[in-house]
Design brief:
With 228 residues, the chain is α+β, with helices and mostly antiparallel strands. Helices cover 54% and strands 19% of the residues. Helix 2 packs antiparallel against helix 3 and helix 3 runs antiparallel to helix 4.
């Protein structure tokens, strides 16, 4: 049982890794993320375990190398943890209707692996502090983000009749609302209908975007409006 030195202390590091991983995993679980409580615990615990193995696997009593010089590098396994978690994080990033989702979850897994590595290496104050900072970033900053007006790009496709010079009226419509047109393209021209695609630079909220679409649809010459 005691073939490795300080094995009880090493076990304590793994227990702390479970605690830290569960704190961050609980926050993700609350938001219905697939990489939630269990995944984050296993990432943190696994990283801590690999660090313990990397540092102490050659300390087993009774095993010597005689006169042969052995070069040991405890950082080699640790470096592979970062690569492995990178692949795991890529699996939770998805593209949904042009929007990228899962970046925060992937970053949480990567961060959690770092916490586990620090615990496995024997640190305590730093990984525990990082866990508190991490949970604060995921919770407190989430509420702060609501008050930050972020610049974004929206693509609006407008299908309209060509009999009333619609392009000039559409340009005036967006200009009156202070929206900057970054790109304009003409899509399908069919049976007297044209589809214009506007790429707009704006900081719309959901309510403002819906209001803009409703106002566009209310124009007499507009047949169809679609936001990408």
């Amino acid at each position: 049982m005691n073939e490795y030195p300080y094995e009880t202390q090493l076990l304590l590091r793994l227990v702390l890794a479970v605690v830290c991983g569960s704190i961050l995993g609980y926050e993700r679980e609350r938001h219905g993320i697939s990489a939630g409580l269990r995944t984050n615990i296993l990432v943190c615990l696994g990283a801590a375990l690999m660090m313990v193995i990397s540092k102490y696997f050659y300390y087993k009593s009774g095993e010597t190398t005689g006169t042969i010089a052995v070069g040991l590098d405890p950082s080699r396994i640790a470096a592979q943890i970062v690569t492995g978690v990178g692949f795991l994080g890529a699996g939770v990033i998805i593209k949904d209707k042009g929007a990228i989702r899962g970046l925060t979850t992937a970053a949480t897994l990567w961060f959690n692996a770092g916490v586990g590595m620090a615990l496995g290496a024997g640190m305590v104050i730093i990984p525990l502090s990082c866990t508190l900072l991490g949970i604060g970033s995921l919770t407190i900053l989430k509420h702060v983000q609501r008050y930050i007006r972020r610049e974004a790009y929206r693509v609006i496709s407008v299908t309209c009749r060509e009999t009333q010079e619609p392009l000039e009226k559409l340009l005036t419509f967006f200009r009156d609302r202070g929206l900057t047109i970054e790109n304009l393209s003409l899509g399908k021209v069919k049976e007297g209908l044209s589809t214009y695609q506007f790429t707009l630079r704006c900081d719309w909220s959901c309510v403002e975007a819906v209001a803009c679409i409703r106002d566009l649809a209310g124009l007499g010459f507009v047949e169809k409006v679609k936001m990408g």
